[in-house]
Amino acid sequence: MKKYNVGLVGVRRGGGLVRAMAAHPQCTIRALCDVDPVALTDLGAHFKLPDRQLHTDFDDFLASDIDVAVIATPIEFHARQSIAAMQSGKHVLCEQTAAYTVDDCQQIIESVKRTGKTYMMAENYSFYHCVLEWKKIIDAGRLGKIYHAEGEYIHEIVDLLVDPETGERKWRYPRAPIWYCGHSLGPLLFLMGDRVVKATGVTPGRNMYPDRDSVSFLDMETGLFLTEKGAVIKILSSQTVKRYRKGGGYLTWYSLYGTRGFVESGRDPTDQGLEWLEDTDTPRGGARHVPTPFSDPDAPAEAKLGGHGTGEYHMVRHFIEALNQGFRPAFNAVQAAEVTVPGLLAHESAMQGGVWIDVPRFGW
Ligand SMILES: NC(=O)c1ccc[n+]([C@@H]2O[C@H](COP(=O)([O-])OP(=O)(O)OC[C@H]3O[C@@H](n4cnc5c(N)ncnc54)[C@H](O)[C@@H]3O)[C@@H](O)[C@H]2O)c1
Fold first, then answer.
1. Whole-number pLDDT of residue 305
2. Are 14 and 42 in contact (CB under 8 A)?
3. Closest ligand 1 atom to the C-alpha of 72?
4. What residues form DSSP beta bridges with 162?
5. Domains and CATH numbers, the chain
6. Contact, 21 vs 27, CB < 8 A?
7. Ligand 1: which atom is nearest the Cα of residue 36?
8. What is the pLDDT of residues 209-238, one digit of tens each?
9. Given ligand 1 and candidates 9, 11, 13, which is best to mutate, with the most ligand atoms within 8 Å of its CB?
10. Residue 341: which of 103, 94, 175 has the closest Cα?
């Protein structure tokens, strides 16, 4: 069985990702990198790594004995670090979204072509249990042709935009809400096997934070997307909405309408989703309530180590399987661009009063 030495850059959220990787029988956590030496030492102690395997310099990290670089730094570093890692012979599992510009997304694709390395954007929500269950229904043709889908990612993170105590602006401060569309648009495109060809966006502006000068404080951004297969997708994104849930957390919600039925997730973890499929249900019987959990009930205990249901567990397994078998994984460089760029263009459209913008075709 082939073994992979794994290195991580960006040890905060990245800590969850590599805990999920460490639970994989083919992975050994070998090196960590972070510009914050305290955070670095803390995670290093968790994995019992000696100091020589802890790096504050990214080039030293790349010179270490690793096969896979997991990149979980702020998004502005993703493209540069992914390209440098592939250039130095590493496979890459990079946090989402892929980049902040269309050109950077294209450069990642070019780097995969040049180096032959495997790149995957770590879109973990697409590996939630409910999404994988819908994928079986859709791949079997039971939804028919999907003509409309909706996704919402509403996550109040004002204290991640500005430090509440010091007022310091954090790395997410310049990020428009819909730039972060991986968790909403990602699972939908994954399920639909489709890509966006035109994007438009709209925003009500900054009603809650009128004094803030950043697009990150827009109340909401709504993106409308036309796909190659002729479907319409609607995405809602917010980083400020006061839609709190008992016990904390955020809203992730999906629905997909096909010519033969529909599926829809619950709006709260305590809610059930809805499903109506022509081949099993009747119009009179109506939609069935179905659980739409993020966690796979049959997965082992360590499957929740990543922190998002069993999303990381199945995502890591998919990535390692792609390395083992040599196939391009889901959210490879082209698909990462296809998920990332519509959000960038929907924001651009919203800033221009809602014009429709053509989404470039990315390919190998
Ligand atoms: N998929 C998910 O569910 C999920 C959840 C949270 C965050 N994320 C993504 O993970 C990434 C990190 O988010 P976070 O919440 O951990 O951010 P964070 O600010 O909490 O942590 C970022 C870490 O990267 C380090 N860092 C910053 N610049 C660096 C550099 N140039 N080189 C090395 N280290 C550097 C920081 O010191 C810090 O430890 C982002 O891309 C974010 O979008 C994904």
1. 84
2. no
3. 11
4. 169
5. 4-124+317-330 (3.40.50.720), 126-300+338-358 (3.30.360.10)
6. yes
7. 37
8. 999 999 999 999 999 999 999 999 999 999
9. 13
10. 103
